[in-house]
Request: fold
Amino acid sequence: MLENLGKLEKEEVVSKEDNYESFIHDVALEVANRSAIREQQRKEIVRLTNTLDNLTKYEGFVTEKIENYKAYVDQCIKASFNPAAAKKSFKFSYKDLQKRGVILDSEVPSLSRGKTQFTISCTQPGQYQVKAKIAGISVETMELKLDDLLERQFNHIDRLELDQITLDVNMTIFLVNEKFRGKKGK
Reply:
């Protein structure tokens, strides 16, 4: 202890001149306040434990709400699903989809665009398959999900980049709603 006091004296933390009274005073205060410090720490632990419990309960609440929301969205999609229209497939030329504003851009060569056909069919409520053919030869099959399109729309993302084609999100939603959710599937 004397060795350590010597080190503290070199650092001018304590002084031998006052017979280490300031150091002894600080130690006495620390000992006297130790129970108060422990009580404060105990209260902080209780407060943090309560906060953690409340956050855990809130997480459960939010998780339940998310599951309920997902179930509600699925119900809405199924309720608006027109089985008669869903059994149909709809064919569109490249030019028709471009004219409707569905196709914004593509890597399809200009000469092949006149020979390009798209067939859109509903695989299940809210899920669509788009088959692309050039001159009658299948070149690509794309899967579209209404949930993904709606999420993009909500997040103000107006473009959907696929392998060789870029679709306008709003016009694509409009098209699938018009064809597969309408009363007659026009």
Summary: The chain has two domains: 1-80, 83-181. The two ends are 94 Å apart (CA to CA). The mean pLDDT is 89.
